[in-house]
């Protein structure tokens, strides 16, 4: 049985006056860790605000955990957590006080809120600092505090907006490790980021936006699986390329290197036959390494 989507949209659109932020957005996203990626201005923040019930779409519908994001706002918000990108923490209280307060807002009784806050602050690495005022925290400690308040009530789904923003390399690694661990606690995750390497490290599924439209949506493994073969030819490169094109392959030529793609046949077999027919040799042959950046640039036409 296929799991029901935790997030979905149909013909979703939103305009700010004459500026169209989202246009015809459609997706079904499964349980797990989802990466929401795109350049600044792609529509990521607008989409998150619609899913949180903060903005009403101009047209279309969106659903969160099966609830209408516009009509069932309380049902949605009682089941989700949100870690905003902006520096929005109260500075004159401790992390423990703030996270206990957040747990109380979610409906936990006082004693349960204190225990849960202690557990979550330990989980994010703030056990020793939890009673210090937040104003003395580093950027990394503030990010951990924001993550703690987002998960203190054990939500079904948590939205993380640029969770590694402003972190040094060590802090980034620690935050990515925390995000990777959330699935083990039964928490689904949507990570919004323009840092594609972070998404590759933490997510199973990717929703890619460009100019307010869906550019790609699918399992990370499918998006970056190498379906293109790279071969470095010894001999007549053009002759090899002609054989490949005649066999129905798409070929890009860059000096002695050919990039070969086909949707109807085995690219490796076609390369083998083209080399044999042309009498050429090869120096190397293998799948072309593909990253999310490659997929984004290819899809956006950059």
Fold and architecture overview:
By secondary structure, the chain is of the alpha/beta class. It folds into 2 domains: 7-223, P-loop containing nucleotide triphosphate hydrolases (Rossmann fold, 3-Layer(aba) Sandwich); 225-300, Alpha-Beta Plaits, CATH 3.30.70.100. The chain has 11 helices and 14 strands. The chain has helices at residues 44-51, 73-77, 95-105, 110-123, 139-151, 169-182, 196-202, 220-224, 237-246, 267-278, 292-300; strands at residues 7-16, 19-29, 33-37, 59-64, 67-68, 80-83, 157-161, 188-193, 205-210, 213-219, 228-234, 250-254, 257-261, 281-287. The strands form 3 sheets. The chain has a 6-stranded mixed beta sheet, sandwiched between helices. The chain is elongated and about 80 Å long. The two termini are 39 Å apart. The mean pLDDT is 90.
Give a summary of the structure in a few sentences.
The protein has 302 residues and is of the alpha/beta class. Helices cover 36% and strands 28% of the residues.
What's the number of extended β-strand segments? 14
What global shape is seen?
elongated
Taking all Cα atoms into account, the compactness measure Rg is 24 Å
Number of helices: 11
Helical/strand content category: alpha/beta
The CATH topology of the largest domain comes to Rossmann fold
Order of helices and strands: EEEHEEHEHHHEHEHEEHEHEEHEH
Give the CATH level 1 class of the largest domain: Alpha Beta
Strand content: 25-35%
What's the domain count? 2
The percentage helix is 25-40%
Poorly predicted parts: none
Jot down its keywords.
302 residues, 2 domains, six-stranded mixed beta sheet, 11 helices, 14 strands, 28% strand, elongated
